Amino acid sequence: MAKAAPDQQGSSLVEFALISPIFLLLLFGILEFGLVMYSKGIITQAGREGARFGVVYNSPPKSAAQIQTQVQDYLTGAGFTGPVTIAITGAGGGNGAPLSVKVAYTYQYLVLPHFVTRLGGNLNLSTETVMRME
Prior knowledge:
By secondary structure, the chain is of the alpha+beta class. The protein has one domain (about 10-130). About 50% of the residues lie in helices and about 20% in strands. It has three helices and three strands; from the N terminus they run ααββαβ. It has a three-stranded antiparallel sheet, covered by helices on one side. A hairpin with an 8-residue loop joins strand 1 (about 85-90) and strand 2. Helix 1 packs antiparallel against helix 2. About 20% of the residues are buried.
């Protein structure tokens, strides 16, 4: 291995000091993006579970409170502890009537909380599932 010229000694340390914050920001940004996508997937699936629970033929039809409990149970099972807003319209309708389940969640950044919240605050995630009553 060739020895570095005297005027270049320590340059790799300076290069590392310049590049490492950018690399770490990129790495943690990728992790945070993955967590956001995971959260979006969970609330989407919770809405689907609630809508499917509500549209399956049952006598008497499921109430909005029962559907909301189903969605909340799914979210609790997935590890969601934060406040989630669940809005249900069309519960208890007749055959072919639409049932809508909306789930909204405010994602609070975990990996880069102080850096990202100064740029734009928390991220509001929402999803809506519409199915027809059976």
